[in-house]
Amino acid sequence: MKYIKYIAFAIATMTVTACGDDFLNPLPDTVVSLDSFFASDDDVLAGIHGVYDALQGTNESTVTSIANANRGVQFEHLLTEHRTDNTRNATLEGSKSDFHRYIVEASNVESEDYYQSMYEVIFRANNILANYIGVADAGNQASYTAELKFLRAYAYFKLVRLFGDVPLITAPVDPSEAETLFTRVAQEQIYQQIIADLQEAVDVLDNSHKGRASRAAAQGILAKAYLSQASPNYSGAEALCEAIIGSGEFSLMSNYSDVFYDELNSEIIFAIEYIAVDANESQGFSAEFTSSTRAGREDGQNIVNTNLFDDFQTFGGNRTAASITDLGFLENDENEVIKFLPEGTDLTASPIDYGVGRNAGNDYIALRYADVLLLHVEATMAGGPATVDPEALASFQAVRDRAGLTTPVASITREDLLTERRVELAFENQRYFDLIRFGELDNVLSTHSDEMGYVYNSQKARFLPIPQREINLSGGLLTQNPGY
């Protein structure tokens, strides 16, 4: 189900300055009375759809100004993929080009927008949880609560991995409570909240949806949360992955390309959905991934770095042709992403509809079955250098077999797994987090920076800056990450 923008509501308690600026939560253009709106179960459900809408974000084709736009996940490739050795911006112009060179500053508008967007998700979820669950039908209250807590956990999981310690807000907050609004909470405590919320979602939800929260989505994200903690819970993550595998409700698509163009297919566990052409429901990241000469816009982003191109040639199998361009005239460091070509644009067709790229309907894939299979290997390996566990080998082999790489694997090293995740999940915003979990961030990125002529800063590579706008609003109560 696609989520039309049912409502635009304001969290009035978030306004914290006399001049009208608001903490993390841009004021929507249309404000409705919450008291009058949430009068029935349908109203509460529409409010939940509004939380997904905050994840979707606003397409640049609708609101060109980035100020208070809330792009949702549409900028996520900049904050993740560009900050690895996978991809880069095509030019050095503008703030979007700062990510791949590790020179993002606290005033960066894309980073600020992402931070705001995730808190928009959190505040919308908190508001419904605190004030309106009781309006829903009694039989739906538990599932609605679990769904909202899943969404809150999902947003916090993104924030804690990208920004480190962040304010932890689990209920509507009065503007006078500045200490709650602006005090950064230790990552360990953020993870405790994420785990508690996701565990409730696992216990309550079923697998009725792929475009909404589900038990399997909560299990998969919880497994990643367990693996991402300072002290990973390997056994817990392994059990969660095995529960998804053992459910029999998901399977790998036989054709790798179909994963990205046959939406909500058997491999998708959780996706953020978009509708093509409709400017209010479409996305712009597909257009950003490729240049104007190939159905995209401007000069292109997510340009494939040479070392990733080389890994595709060696380890990609049939995934290579479905992941990056091969038009016969591009250099190895000029290839672009084709996993998310707007509406599956045929690059050989003439004329190409360039306009559709800015209003694409390609879904954002948040979690899919191949990711879970490889997480299962990681959890089974439990931080060790390798594994020969039969079930881990089976999970790994399934992903390799689908790629046409059918030679049996007798053991899997950490390097094997990291490389496999790189080519299987390229351009799906996973590489940055993988490098952190595997303890390879500094090693890989410092080497990559030397090759590319960047000045590597390990502090800036590890965490993004807390937006300066939020620090200013806090009067200095909100502190900055080291290195900025």
Provide structural commentary.
- By secondary structure, the chain is mainly alpha-helical.
- It has 3 domains: 1-205 and 441-484, Serine Threonine Protein Phosphatase 5, Tetratricopeptide repeat (Alpha Horseshoe), CATH 1.25.40.390; 210-270 and 363-439, Serine Threonine Protein Phosphatase 5, Tetratricopeptide repeat; 285-362, no CATH class.
- It has helices at 34-37, 41-56, 76-79, 109-131, 141-163, 178-182, 187-204, 215-228, 234-247, 258-261, 285-289, 306-315, 369-381, 390-402, 414-424, 431-437, 441-452, 458-462, 468-473; strands at residues 87-88, 166-167, 184-185, 268-272, 303-304, 364-368, 386-387, 412-413.
- The strands form 4 sheets. It has a two-stranded antiparallel ribbon. A two-stranded antiparallel sheet has the order 2-3.
- The longest helix is centred in the N-terminal third of the chain and has 23 residues, at 109-131.
- The radius of gyration is 21 Å and the shape is globular.
- The model is unreliable at 1-35 (pLDDT under 50).
Task: Summarize the structure in short.
The strands form four sheets. A two-stranded antiparallel sheet has the order 1-5.
Architecture blueprint of SSEs:
Blueprint: H1 34-37, H2 41-56, H3 76-79, E1 87-88, H4 109-131, H5 141-163, E2 166-167, H6 178-182, E3 184-185, H7 187-204, H8 215-228, H9 234-247, H10 258-261, E4 268-272, H11 285-289, E5 303-304, H12 306-315, E6 364-368, H13 369-381, E7 386-387, H14 390-402, E8 412-413, H15 414-424, H16 431-437, H17 441-452, H18 458-462, H19 468-473
Antiparallel strand pairs: 1-5, 2-3, 4-6, 7-8
